[in-house]
Design goal:
heterodimer; A: about 110 residues; mainly beta; Immunoglobulin-like; five-stranded mixed sheet; about 0% helix; globular; B: about 110 residues; seven-stranded mixed sheet; four-stranded antiparallel sheet; 11 strands
Chain lengths: ~110, ~110
């Protein structure tokens, strides 16, 4: 699968604020997935959004997908210290497996 | 709870000494993946199995091999570890292609 490019590479906000990170990709996709990785641990799947969907919610997470712009965004509302992690997007097309970009490193300040 | 288990969590080996990392799953998923994650980098797919079909990434070194003796287990063999192979190795499973993946906690490999 193709690699997504996350932006910004680093983001530091105060606890309680909202965090928004973006993902861009190059070619058409089957779906796009977001993952979180806490320091030194395995990845956790957050949300999968299909190419025919425009928005999806899961708890405090909101993901949008704009296939015309080949971009996606992940919004975390009311951030908590436990949200401190690296966030990766993975655009999924023909080939199996995830190809990750450098990620967005989110720090929630107390 | 259904899960992906990796053993050991930490592995130390010597330069050139073969090492095997283990992954097991209770999810009964068809697909199992191995990723390598070096310090401060994103995970990189090495290969995956769809059932018994092995799929190697083009740039995975020959030094890395894998076995999947049954649905539940998948092994990563590093035949002659070099210092550059020190990394976190992540196993993941998925019910099918293009689905969400479930990751294990990883095995951190140190090569002395």
């Amino acid at each position: 699968s193709q690699q997504g490019e996350e932006d910004p590479q680093a983001l530091s906000i105060q606890e309680g604020e909202n965090a928004t990170m973006n993902c861009s990709y190059k070619t058409s996709i089957n779906n796009l997935q977001w993952y979180r990785q806490n320091s030194g641990r395995g990845l956790v799947h957050l949300i999968l959004i299909r190419s025919n969907e425009r928005e999806k919610h899961s708890g405090r997470l909101r993901v949008t997908l704009d296939t015309s712009k080949k971009s996606s965004s992940l919004l975390i509302t009311a951030s908590r210290a436990a949200d401190t992690a690296s966030y990766f997007c993975a655009p999924i097309e023909g080939a199996d497996g995830l190809t990750f970009g450098k990620g967005t490193h989110l720090i929630i300040q107390p | 709870d259904a899960m992906v288990i990796q053993n050991p969590r930490y592995q130390v080996t010597q330069f050139g000494k073969p090492v095997t990392l283990s992954c097991s799953q209770t999810l009964n998923h068809n697909v199992m993946y191995w990723y390598q994650q070096k310090s401060s980098q994103a995970p990189k797919l090495l290969f995956h199995y769809y059932d018994k079909d092995f799929n190697n990434e083009a740039d995975t070194p020959d030094n890395f091999q894998s076995r999947r003796p049954n649905t539940s287990f998948c092994f990563l063999d590093i035949r002659s570890p070099g210092l550059g192979d020190a990394a976190m190795y992540l196993c993941a499973t998925s019910p099918g292609s293009h689905n969400e993946q479930f990751f294990g906690p990883g095995t951190r490999l140190t090569v002395l």
